[in-house]
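Let us begin with a simple case.
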Amino acid sequence: MKISLPFNSKMQKRDFLFGVATASFQIEGGIDSRLPCIWDTFCNTPNKIRDNSDGATACDHYNLWQQDVDLIESLNVDAYRLSISWPRVITAEGALNQQGVDFYIGVLDRLIEKGIKPFVTLYHWDLPQHLEDNGGWLNRDTAYKFRDYADLISTAFGDRVHSYATLNEPFCSAYLGYEAGIHAPGLKSRSFGKKAAHHLLLAHGLAMQVLQKNSPNALNGIVLNFTPCYPQSNSLQDLNASNIADAHFNQWYIKPLFDKCYPSIIENLPAEELPQIESGDMEIIAQPLDFMGVNFYTRAVYKACAENQFEQVTVPDVPHTDIGWEIYPKALSELLLSLNDLYPLPPLYITENGAAMDDKLQDGSVADEDRTQYYHQHLNAVNDAIEAGVDIRGYFAWSLMDNFEWAEGYLKRFGIVYVDYQTQQRTLKNSAKAYRDFISLRT
């Protein structure tokens, strides 16, 4: 199975950027060299992680980073998207932890030496636990703590970073962490989700201000995840239900960035669910972006279940990944076109796209042709959006390697590289070889 695009695709040119991506808590381990974070606490709470595992070792990237950078180089990618562990680089008092800073400087310098552009995410969900103890993202002050962290670390990194993203997927932090209780810190209250989301977006805006000052030559922006919402039928009720779901789960996080306001559903929220918006907040949130990252995996289908209420439904007889997500590549191109129509977008990067599959290591290889097919289909969906006029500059495969998959523990494998968690042996899956070969053919 090969990955291919139309002969004249702009993605076949060398100036279109291809990369791989990871996140600090999911791969690093090195737990003794940093402060505790909310995911450490969540992992130590019974019945939160499906296999009762934790991130104490993960892929041991903290110790094996040099061989992992060699691994990245072997894939012929242009860029590597990594996240910084806030509790590794900032002390409880708010100063730089030089040991943690030096770890990342070593990684960044090695990447640059090999000609690989570092795309750095400042927050990929691992909030320091001491900040959560003071209210976490429900506390407005956390946004200012994040600004201070962004200021210190971007100054320390100097000109090493090609691109900074403030946040990865604020929807997941706010909704899954504070409203649904599925992710750390595991709070479950409808009155929390929108409040946490507002403070996250405020943190983004505040951090953008310092990034543009400290790192004016970097591409500075944010990464949002989108799960496009489709109606089960063409009935007005189902169309309305899918639109309301879209406003809650997708538009809530992007509309403030460009329109300086939340979607109109805010007018129907009960008082206890309303975010606490102070004068000037929306202007701070809507800082000009050098780029926006789009993370995409699947779509969701909704039906109406009561007036202005929605319920997600399962589509029968369709292909799914091992995590249960429908494979529907067309939703990616349709998403990109709709965002392009709705907002004055900066250049876009597909910052995550990939699939969990039921991988088996047999005789030293992993024949994951289903994942290669997923990449082939979705890269072509990106190409369709580019041909329709969307300005997309790059694509990152999620993930470089199998890792700690949050509430799923180590049960789901998203990597294009297989990790044996007992030996920490890395093995290129067939999808990694197909991705490498595809990248290498560009002109």
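The second case is a distinct protein. As before, the sequence precedes its structure tokens.
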Amino acid sequence: MLSADVFQVGRAGSTAHRVTNISEMGMCIVQPVKMAVGDVVVLVIGRVEHMVADVMWVRAGLAGLRFHEPIDLALARARRVAGHVVAPPSAGWLAALNDPYAK
């Protein structure tokens, strides 16, 4: 089972979601937590870290996300190293996602 960790603006930490399908340009996840069309999120999928995506649709417990850049599907499907901790973005505007003063 493939899963993705999602970082959202204004939310501390990430949420884990099962991926129902994935392509080089987007994916569908289960149980989108407080996601709305137009939101920008940062994802960690397999060994692909800090991928930026737009929420394109949300309905019936699913959400469709479109990546800003194509991803390597082999890396996205690769298992993470044991003990790997998913960390929030630490550079550029991505680092300000959860900064209450950066609004």
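The mean pLDDT is 84. Residues 73-77 form the longest helix (5 residues).
Keep these points in mind for the review questions at the end of the chapter.
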